[in-house]
Amino acid sequence: MSFIKNIGKTVRDNIRDYGMFLALFAIMIFFTITTKGVFISPRNISNLINQTGCIAVLAVGMTLVIVIRHIDLSVGFLAGFMGAIAAIAMVSWHFPVWVVIPMVLILGILAGLLIAFLVAKMGIPSFVASLAGWLIYRGALLLVTLKTGTIIIPNATYNAIGNGYIPDLPGVGILPGVHKLTLLLGILAVVIFIIGDVRDREKKKAYGFEVSTMDIFIMKIVFTAALIMAVTWVMAGYNGLSWTFVIVLAVTFVYHFITTQTVLGRYIYAVGGNPEAAELSGIDVKKITYIVFGSMGMLAALSGILYSSRLQSATTIAGQLFEMDAIAAAYVGGVSAGGGVGRVTGSIIGALVMMSLTNGMNLMGIDISSQYIVKGVVLVLAVVFDVATRNRGK
Amino acid sequence: MNNTILEMQHITKEFPGVRALDDVCFSVIEKEIHCLVGENGAGKSTLMKILSGVYPYGDYEGEIIFNGLEQKYSTISDSKKAGIAIIYQELALVPELTVYENIFLGHEIMNGLVIDWNETIKKATQMLKKVGLDVNPTVKVKELGLGKQQLIEIAKALSMDVRLLILDEPTSALNESDSENLMNLLRDLKKHGVTSVLISHKLKEVIEIADRVTVLRDGKTICTLDAHKDEVKENVLIKHMVGREINNVYPKRDATVVDEKVFEVKHWNAYDPAIGREILKDINLNVRKGEIVSLAGLMGSGRTELALSLFGNPRKYHVNGEMYVNGKHVHLKHPEQAIKSGLAYVTEDRKGNGLILIQDVKQNITLANLRAIAERGIVNRNEEVVASNEYRNTLNIKTPSIEQKVLNLSGGNQQKVSVAKWLFVQPKVLILDEPTRGIDVGAKYEIYTIMNRLVEQGMSIIMISSELPEILGMSDRIYVVSFGRITGELSAKEATQEKIMKLATD
Ligand SMILES: Nc1ncnc2c1ncn2[C@@H]1O[C@H](COP(=O)(O)OP(=O)(O)OP(=O)(O)O)[C@@H](O)[C@H]1O
Ligand SMILES: [Mg+2]
Fold first, then answer.
1. What is the rounded radius of gyration, in angstroms, for the C-alpha atoms of chain A?
2. N or C terminus of chain B with fewer C-beta within 10 Å?
3. Is B457 helix (H, G, I), strand (E, B) or coil?
4. Domain co-membership, A156 together with A35
């Protein structure tokens, strides 16, 4: 009885956190039924994740930008332009891929810093500064692809980023048709997760803090472990982990860690919550602005790499509307326009929700016009849910 | 003659984790000035928010009878229509709008379909005169100090047809003479048939003006005292409020001053490019180890500007002059450097630039010194909980948990969080800008005790205050500031209210 009550309380306290998860779950079930299981097939899920990758990394960066009360409209075409630069570097300049990737990421950072300079130093509103960026990168993308049109990328290593899978363990005979390394990594992730959680709980206890009851604690672990294993199993059943998935996971992990555990993360949210108070607390608001836009630029470049490698080419309209998808994903994921509120993981879920809608409706053969409308409605519903639960929390 | 105009019966209101009001009864007689007092977090603001419809009918238990009728307000405009005007503890003006626009915001004077601006300005000027405020109605509100903004709030309330005026700590940001004006204003209004409810932590003014006083403690009505029966006395009020007696408002401290200058400024000038004016002229001051030095002066005399210009100059004034911390010549270009060199500054405007309201208590307390609980850039959140709980206990911050958002704390408890935040920095020189604004007597005593303890431990304190008794009661030395200049320096012994006032108006 008290166990049930405990669950009820936990769910109620965290409805905001789980709300988007549940929505994603519902959407997935819906499409699984309407497509007679095609949606949930390992092949499609793998495809869905690779599609989501380039928006997901943008959404992560955008989360922080919105948290500090700014916006960056330039990232879509910046991603496209960076993809084109990568293509040209490999095709025309014959740079090796290991030079191209860091180079493009650094260029992305510089592009982000440029906007930060306009915003922090010159006092130009980020909407305007990044709108200028949007125009400029769009022009730049057209310019560099002017002579050639679409640039085909022949480099197999590069193209593997968007299409390839991690290698399997060689010479293990058991479980044919299952990707062993993926399975192993999944198990490893569960073990690390459990150790981390148990340790955290022990530390809290050592400090004499109240911790969640044992049954709730175990239930949470079992639930999360099951979730990780389920995803792992689906992936392992197809080709294993795709490189894109690995990259998105890494980005999410790093940014989640930074935002929730570090001094830098705290500073970012403080600046978003009240810039003046942050400044008086000894936080260099300008520096934070540079860092956040710099990271956004880097992630835009990463997005460009993911996209161009997936298409194995740089096209003249690459990155179009990416910024809008990223912004929508962030808002769906619970980022607040007022600043200071929003999680990286939320935005990832938001990106998955939006991409699942696209993917699922494509599979159902729904017309693109209706797709836009549905996505618009979902965006509004998500934000309404967010606002409603937030007020209830007060 | 004793017409009860308002009757609030058995009011109970709960927030998650807190029962803010517990079966409170409160009644007001027509044309009286009724004061509501109680400790921080006692539930005063909450009670008035219920009365004015901020918390709508159904959000609380109990009933409200106003003018003989049961009222069920669902919005603020419902209560406004009934003739209830409330001035909140946290000011609610639009900084970007002009004074006259603010006064008539929400009930604009119309001429057909358009706003009659000429009439508006004329009426606004009258209202300003009524509250004794001498400002041009066409300036933007953000250009005025907190004290003047407060008077504009009152002018705004008066511009409507009000029968019951509620003022939630209107004088906490006002100096003595402005407070006096306001009290006279309330007496005046009373003659014209306006009933007022006044919430205040300044017991002197409560005693001076109240017809009756109701005391709340921990969300319960303790008693209602009648001034005309001679029941309203300071010690009685304090006893009912805090549940024990406090005899000495300013705790004693042993001599702590060591003759060693910890902080010194010489020939300090500042020019504010935003308003194109010199705001500080040739300031010379010093603070010794273990000393409490006060900056006295009128509202707008430039004390806050001085503090900001010293504390890393975040407003980017053009400053010149010399500053020494611990004998070392420093050039502080950012609050970060100021904190590193050993300064801390508790702002006067906790909501505007002191706290991050959407974050919780512990995040606010640790923000200015996060590195102290971090290792290699990673915050130790367990240490954070320990540290915040410690300050919550020493300052007696009333909150269900340190995970509560600061937004949900009562005004006085927000102030305590603000003080806690800067104590956590463990500075050498602590600048306190109106540290006891909106704080109850008990908590004031606690803050004073803490100040004494800090100087005993060798810290130095610069206190900016508009409350002369506080300045006289706590300082070792007093600088008087007037129009951006230091017009005098007084030792604790020679200082009197009269001397300070004279220098302040020089
Ligand atoms: N929105 C809210 N959410 C949660 N708790 C709240 C909220 N508003 C007030 N409280 C709590 O209710 C109690 C009463 O608060 P209230 O603001 O009425 O106090 P007060 O008497 O006005 O104090 P002060 O003198 O400090 O202004 C406090 O414990 C406060 O933390
Ligand atoms: Mg209050």
1. 22
2. N
3. coil
4. yes
Q: Which ligand is nearest to the CA of B241?
A: 1
According to the model, what pLDDT value does residue B467 have? 84
Q: Is A287 left (phi over 0), alpha (psi -120 to 50) or beta?
A: alpha
Chain A window 252-271: which residues touch B at a Cβ cutoff of 8 Å?
Answer: 261-264, 266-267, 269-270
Q: Are B346 and B144 in contact (CB under 8 A)?
A: no
Contacts of A205 in chain B (CB under 8 A): none
Closest protein CA for atom 6 of ligand 1: B408
Q: What confidence tier does A6 reach under pLDDT thresholds 50, 70, 90?
A: low
The angle, 0 to 180 degrees and rounded to 10, between the axes of the packed helices A42-67 and A75-91 is 120
Residue nearest to atom 22 of ligand 1 (CA): B45
The answer on A285 and A345 residing in a single domain is yes
- Amino acid identity, position A290: Y
| CATH class of the structural domain B256-342+427-506 | alpha beta
ipTM over 0.90: no
Whether residues A46 and A86 fall in one domain:
yes
pLDDT single digits (tens) A248-261: 999 999 999 999 99
Q: Kindly state whether residues A36 and A181 are assigned to the same domain.
A: no
CA B83, distance to chain mean position in Å, is 27
Integer Cα distance of A363 and B343 in angstroms: 63
Q: Are residues A311 and A350 in the same domain?
A: yes
Indicate the residue type of B360: D
Closest CA to B482 of B315, B306, B259: B306
How does the average pLDDT of chain A come out, rounded? 90
Return the residue of A nearest to B334 by Cα.
Answer: A282
Domain B4-242 indexed as CATH 3.40.50.460: no
C-alpha R_g of chain B: 23
User: Any idea what DSSP says for residue B144?
Assistant: S
- Asked whether residue A188 falls in the same domain as residue A147, the answer is no
Distance CA A140, CA A314 (A): 13
- Decide whether B4-242 matches B256-342+427-506 in CATH topology: yes
User: Which structural domain range is residue A229 located in?
Assistant: 171-241
Does residue B442 have its Cβ closer than 6 Å to ligand 1? no
Spell out which residues of chain A touch residue B346, defining contact as CB-CB under 8 Å.
none
| Strands B110-111 and B61-66, sheet pairing | unpaired
To which H or E segment does residue B65 belong? strand B61-66
Note whether A203 and A287 are same-domain residues.
no
Among the ranges given (A70-84, B157-171, B353-367), the one the predictor scored with the smallest mean pLDDT: B157-171
Q: How far apart are CA B478 and CA B494, in angstroms?
A: 10
| Residue-wise pLDDT tens digits, B221-252 | 999 998 888 888 888 888 888 877 777 778 88
Q: Between B335, B381, B408, which is nearest A280 by CB?
A: B335
Boundary residue ending a domain (A241, A260, A279): A241
B172 lines ligand 1 (CB under 6 A): no
One-letter amino acid identity for B14? E
CA angle A261, A263, A267 (to 5 degrees): 115
C-alpha distances in Å from residue A51, one per residue of A27, A308, B335: 17, 12, 45
Per-residue model confidence (pLDDT) at position A19: 77
Domain count for chain A, please give it. 2
- Which among A241, A257, A278 is the end of a domain? A241
Note whether A262 and A233 are same-domain residues.
no
pLDDT tens, residue by residue, B82-102: 889 888 876 678 888 888 888
**pLDDT tens for each residue of A265-319:** 999 999 999 999 999 999 999 999 999 999 999 999 999 999 999 999 999 999 9
Q: How far is the CA of B350 from the centre of ligand 1 (A)?
A: 16
CA-CA-CA-CA torsion sign (B253, B258, B263, B266): positive
The full length of chain A comes to: 394
For chain B, the structural domain boundaries read: 4-242, 256-342+427-506, 354-425
Contact A91, A375 (CB under 8 A): no
